[in-house]
Amino acid sequence: MIAPLPRNSFDSALQGHGLEPLRRGPVTTLQVNVGLVCNQACHHCHVEAGPNRTETMESETVERIVELLASDSVVEVLDLTGGAPELNRHFRPLVQWGRQRGLRVIDRCNLTVLQEPGQEDTAEFLAANRVEIVASLPCYLQENVDRQRGRGVHEKSIAALRRLNALGYGVPGTGLSLNLVYNPGGASLPPSQADLEPSYRRELRSRFGLEFTKLLTLTNMPIRRFAEFLDRTEQHAVYHSLLVNHFNPATVAQLMCRSLLSVGYDGRLYDCDFNQMLALPAAQGCQTIWQLESLQEVEGSPIVTDSHCLGCTAGAGSSCGGALA
Is the backbone peptide bond immediately before 16 cis, with ω within 30 degrees of 0? Predict the structure, then answer.
């Protein structure tokens, strides 16, 4: 059993620095979790996705999301996540619709899915639709990647990156964005994003001849599989103290929950993907996409927080777009 953390020490940290409770601004990013089906089962995965999961977004939910986006002029980004979002049968139509509407469309890709049966032309599809790829690669070393994500994942990831590079992804001047994601292998904060990126670029070039656009560093959130790891290794309290002691008030204004709305595979609304995995619904009166008339109805509403939110404000901060400060 996972040891409970002190009740909402995130709010205590805000109060201790004279900061107000979090409230939403306009929704400029709609993050859609299309399901928990994945071809991998990574140790750090906060959504506990895997090959044995069956939860997936159905057509009526996709249709309602499209309706809401069609009537909204503020949302700029459609951020598709999972599981492996490419494995959902509605992934491609949703991508194409978003691009036709002029939205930035992000695919949070685990790379190895590009080599799964039925996905042989997915890389070409992404390039043709100029989808931004955010790809997990926690290290350039095989041993570290395979330890965290499974045996053989490093080799498949490198092969996928070579394929994406050949299509122009990550290559300067093409406009095809390929951002790589680093997260620590254990109970520590990520190093400086600005300092780590040159090392990644140098090592991936020299070892594999690979290019990428930008490196994003993410903090491991103390929920789900990572929380279980912390509990097994008796590091839960230590990691919580680490997050508390490295609370950075300069990150608060940039927190992704201020401008992002998260939609679950079943159409339920959350303030972020982490809250979604903890089943902490958004605080506004509308709890599902079918209760909303407009995505902007949530503007000004309070944001649901708990102690895990310290993971987004520790050190340089962490978000789906990498470091905050």
Answer: no
